[in-house]
Amino acid sequence: MLKHFPFRNLLPAMVILAFAMTIAGCSTQKNTAKSRWWHAFNARYNTYYNGTVAYIEGSLEKENGNKDNYSEMIPYYTVGNKNSRELGKSNYDRAIEKCEKAIHQHSIKRRPVWDKKRRKTAKDLEWLHRREYNPFLWKAWMLMGRSQFFEGDFQSAAATFAYMSRLYATQPGIYGKARAWLAKSYLESGWIYDAEDVIRNIERDSIHWRAQKEWDKTYALYYLKTGRYQEAVPYLRKAIGYEMRRKQKARLWYLMGQVEAQQGHAQNAYRAFKHVIRLNPPYELEFNARISMTEVLATNNSRKMVSKLKRMAASDKNKEYLDQVYYAIGNIHLNQGDTLQAIAAYEKGAAKSSRNGIEKGVLLLHLGNVYWQCHRYGDAKRCYDAAIGLLDQDRKDYKQLSDRSKVLDELVPYTDAIHLQDSLQSLARMSETERNVAIDKVIDALKKQEKEEKRRLADQELAEKQDNQSAGRNNGNGNNSRNNRNQGNSNASSGFGNGAMGNGGFGNTNTWYFYSQSAVAQGKQQFERLWGKRKNIDNWRRSNQTVVADAKGVEEMTDEQRDSLLNEAQKKDLEKEKEKNLSAEEDPHQRAYYLAQIPLTEEKMAESNQILDDGLLHAGIILKDKLNDLDESERMLQRLVKKNASYEHLDDAYYHLYLLYNIRKQPAIASRYLDLLKANYPESQWIALLTSPYYEEDAKMGIHLEDSLYAATYDAFKANLYNKVVHNRAISDKRYPEGANRDKFLFIGGLTQLHEGNIQACLDDMQQVVEKYPNSRLSEMAGMILNGVKAGRQLKGGTFDLSNVWSRRNAVLNDDVKSKAKVFSIERNEPFVFMLAYVPDSVNENQLLFEMAKYNFTSYLVRNFDLVIDEQNGLHRMQVKGFRNYDEARQYANDIYQHQAITQLLSKGARGIVISEPNLLLLGTSLSYDDYTLFYTQHLAPLKISKDPLLEEPEEIIQQEKTDDTEENEEETGTAESGTTGEIETGTTGTFSNGTTGTSENGTTGTQGTDADIKEEKAPNTTIDNDDSLDLDSEEYDLDGF
Q: Could you tell me if residue 70 is inside a domain?
């Protein structure tokens, strides 16, 4: 009977049963050898593998597209260049998404079953105290943190590595690597103190040998960031030895050369730069290494090195790098003390530069500094104005550049006026023959300059035509060979060796053009070279949009359109006629043009002297007060008092000379000018100031005394002590008429006058605030009061609390434009926002941000909410966005106020607000917070909201099409059961699909990202050549090469 039993019929059922039992035994709810092996295997060869491929592609795109500023010390990591941070971002995001999926599906936190009869060893205790039992999953955490790091999200990376170090605290090798990357994340974020804390803590323990490599790199980065270059050298040398990629190794050798040169070790620097050239790097890096070699050896061989650099400048290969060549020549001359030759080299480099990049900005900055030191402020301003738009605002010297540029904006008009009037008066004193010869030289120079400019433009146009023709030929060849390329192995287009955007071009890549920032930037530059800057409008190729606005003929146009075209044509004819009929006095190519400006009559000479005297006075004051250039200030003011004893503002010159010599500790000379001031100008304001019994006290502590006086006045105003306000206002009028708080005294004094019933005095004070202090924040409120009175409104007395930000509006009344009254919308089915508004110092903002981000992540698994902080009128506003309607926002608000960790952080002055996005635009501008509170209480609060759990519904359901990689996605989806997501305990952090990050160990708070919802997309082609296939068990598996 048995031999006739139908086993073949039961075989499929048995296979299915065995498979189901295997899957059940591999649940993350169980911790057995089988489940650990299964989840490690599945994580490694599904989600993690695809994340690794995306990470490598992103790293290659960043490596190939990165552009360093070699005129300054380059950063250790390419992500240190802000302009390169967006490179590879889409690939890094994909890697992060895959790591999150691997962690979500394969994390095993349940402790294994232990035989209580068995004695526990130290190894067993370590095993039982682990918080993660998937032996492979630490690599997913590491890959996720590194992806966040290299896409420039250092705070999220820090949160991930901080959590990882706690998760694997019992495993020294993994723990050491996580702590090293945590320190790197802090260093790149600029959080030096936090990084030092991590380093100090790790130094107390021994570094595990598996983490030694990462810590050598971390120490190199730390010493570079803190400027301790001598200590950085041995670690940087070790890091170079660890580097497996030739291009990155060459880049680190260049950094080594810069570090050695910074310390004055010329020979060591030369050898380092020589290592760069031996590695055959990209031409730009090799070129800069050769330039740096000449600079470090220029001390005793300056002529030879300059000659070598000039030969480099003559090479056609280097025509794009002429600014860097002449910058190096200028540096050599400057180090030799030859300032004139240095200026000439810098100027030539700026003139010949074909790139408006950071290299030119650095050159102009150094040139401006040289002019500044030589007191050539007009030239310094020209260089600073050009440099300030080319340099990054995060530079250490950017603030100094900005401050100098602002001061020069005040000073240079006066120094230029002095120079011009001196030149014109010098010409006026010449004989007619000498004057004509000088004018003819100027005209010849102008004609020569115009001729050179025309030649330059013609050469540029010819070069552009040649480039276009060359590009056209290349496109033709590309079309002919397209079929041949398509017949080749498709794997070649995505192999790692090809890069994402090789050399900034398209290369053989599957990366779309608009996903590569370098390609987009290159395309924009090429477009502007060909077409200039054009608006994105129809018929953009037409340079004259008014003459031919569309394809209609003149006969099809309306009468108004024909009249408009006729007027335009008449205007152009008139302009051409004016150009033809330029008088000799208006043509810079004629003598009469220059003769008309020369003060040859007594009246013109008097006007010239007036301009000259004003320039000397104001330039002298600015030089003394804002530049502390006492020598140049003395020269200007002394020239004024000796030149024109009848100058109407000579008392100002005497007063500032008195101050100048007091600063120089020359009381005898200072007393002389004080006596001149008293004798010649007894009624001067300066006499009243200098003879004041408070003069010495105000000179030493006037700023602090006025601040204290205003604080007391403001407190009295809030307490309705108006007599004290009037008394303190009188002190301000007498002692501090030009004080820093003068606008506030006027405003509060005006409001006090209004309370006393003196309306006209109030309006006079408000008028002074508007006229004298237009940039003051109080000027807006004063303007509202004045315009309201002009519009016929009546002022009424009463109290006015300046500190009540909740009732403040910013809209200023306008006489000319009568805007419609704006009201809040009652619409409930539009995007809403939940907002916490508070005075900045009233809450612990960082802790509140962390708690909100943590609450969003742990409470809403299918919804992503953006968390944004902005500032308005002295209030900080933490906004949670992503609610589709009023009901969702109201449910969220109800839930958030049940969360004790958040409510206990909120002060009594903080307000929680549920508001639609259109109404948010009106808040604090046209309407106040108190206005909205009233509106909400009357119209929105009574509304009934849905009882359905709206926030548990996905924002949108995506129907995914079947693609070639559907099978891969189905494998990645896994069969994890509910509750096996690897929950994050209180205080832990990480970066997940909603982009939230928490706090790190040292109290550092991360931020909540504003990324859109992560959606499963069709995976890019990630097939690779067989020769380059990843061996996940090899040393390179840790991605140290990237």
A: yes
Q: What is the mean pLDDT of residues 254-280?
A: 91
Q: Do 142 and 70 belong together in one domain?
A: yes
Instruction: Tell me the sheet residues that pair with 912.
Output: 836
DSSP code, position 47: I
Whether 921 maps to a domain, the answer reads yes
Q: How far apart are CA 25 and CA 23, in angstroms?
A: 5
C-alpha span between 826 and 601 (Å, rounded): 74
Q: Which residues are registered as beta bridge partners of 747?
A: none
DSSP 1034: S
Say what percent of the chain tops pLDDT 90: 16
pLDDT in tens, 698-727: 777 878 888 888 899 988 888 888 888 889
Is the pLDDT at 745 greater than 70, yes or no? Answer: yes
Instruction: For residues 148 and 11, state if they share a domain.
Output: yes
Q: What angle do CA 723, 728, 729 make, to 5 degrees?
A: 95
Instruction: Let me know whether 13 and 33 are in one domain.
Output: yes
How far from the centroid of its chain's Cα atoms is residue 875's Cα?
23
pLDDT at 494: 36
Q: Which of the two residues, 1031 and 394, has the higher pLDDT score?
A: 394
> Which of 780, 798, 816 is the C-terminal boundary of a domain?
798
Q: Looking at the chain, how many residues does it have?
A: 1042
User: For the CA atoms of the chain, what is the radius of gyration?
Assistant: 37
Q: Is the pLDDT of residue 173 over 70?
A: yes
**Whether residues 784 and 850 fall in one domain:** no
Q: Do 845 and 708 share a domain, yes or no?
A: no
Eight-class DSSP state of 1009: -
Q: Across the chain, what does the average pLDDT equal?
A: 76
Most confident segment among 245-254, 354-363, 815-824, 870-879: 245-254
Clarify whether residues 974 and 944 are in a common domain.
no
Token reading at 203:
């130094």
What are the pLDDT digits (tens) for 417-474? 999 999 898 988 888 888 888 888 888 888 888 888 888 788 777 767 776 666 555 5
In this structure, is residue 989 part of a structural domain? yes
Which of 17-26, 551-560, 793-802 has the highest average model confidence (pLDDT)? 793-802
CB of 102 within 8 A of CB of 47?
A: yes
Q: b/e for 320-335, b at 16 or more Cβ within 10 A? A: ebbbbbbbbbbbbbbe
868 strand-pairing partners: 879
In a domain, 276, yes or no: no
Residue 965 has pLDDT above 90, yes or no: no
> How many whole angstroms separate alpha carbon 295 and alpha carbon 513?
39
pLDDT reading at 769 higher than 50: yes
User: Which positions ≥6 away from 30 have C-beta within 8 Å?
Assistant: 110
Share of the chain above pLDDT 70, in %: 73
Q: Give the dihedral of Cα atoms 755, 758, 762, 763; nearest 10 deg.
A: 140
The region, left, alpha or beta by phi > 0 then psi within -120 to 50, assigned to residue 628 is left
Hey, which residues does 838 pair with through a beta bridge?
Answer: 876
Last residue of a domain, which of 952, 972, 1005?
952
Number of domains in the chain: 3
Residue 732 belongs to domain with CATH number = 1.25.40.10
Is residue 52 domain-shared with residue 181, that is, in the same domain?
Answer: yes
d(CA 742, CA 135): 69
- The two structure tokens encoding residue 350: 């700026």
Structural domain range at position 172: 1-110+125-208+958-1042
Q: Are 16 and 92 found together in one domain?
A: yes
Report whether 568 contacts 547 (CB < 8 A). yes
Give the burial string for 961-990 (b: 16+ CB within 10 Å, else e): eeeebeebbeebebebeeebbbebeeebbb
Other beta carbons within 10 angstroms of residue 376's beta carbon come to 16
